[in-house]
Write a structure and sequence with these properties.
Elements: H1 2-16, E1 32-40, E2 45-54, E3 57-65, E4 70-79, E5 83-92
Antiparallel strand pairs: 1-2, 2-3, 3-4, 4-5
Length: about 140
């Protein structure tokens, strides 16, 4: 037990002297340039995005065609000092976006064509001549 106490105090003294200073590695922020685009005339899915990250600051823009006939354009920036900032604009296209037709199946309600009287178990059948057998 005494050995553990001596070892503990030796580690505390070494840490105070800077001998056992923790090794911390800071990673540099990732730098990248990212793009994508979709232009599907069958479904009306038209969108694009471009984003750049440099030294921890991100900036970008994306756009898409809304079904109500507008093109939405979002320009944004993000960094540790200002946080996320976005500017949204809507530009009229002059026409509504036509998407692929949605196929729906209408289910008709069932109709009853024949009423079957209930089948009673244990051979008991109601007597049509007695309205209330208990009184």
């Amino acid at each position: 037990m005494a050995f553990k106490i001596v070892l503990l105090f030796a580690c505390i003294a070494a840490a105070s002297a800077g001998i056992l200073a923790p090794i911390v590695q800071h990673e540099a922020p990732a730098n990248y340039d990212f793009n994508y685009e979709v232009h599907d005339t069958n479904t009306g899915d038209i969108k694009r995005q471009h984003e750049v990250a440099k030294d921890g600051a991100i900036s970008g823009e994306y756009s898409l065609y809304d079904a109500d006939g507008f093109r939405r354009v979002v320009t944004y920036t993000a960094d540790d000092h200002h946080g996320f900032q976005a500017n949204v604009q809507r530009e009229p296209l002059g026409h509504k976006v036509v998407s692929a037709p949605v196929v729906t199946k209408v289910i008709q309600p069932a109709t009853v064509t024949k009423v079957v009287s209930p089948v009673f178990s244990h051979g008991w059948q109601p007597n049509p001549h007695v309205s209330n057998p208990w009184g």
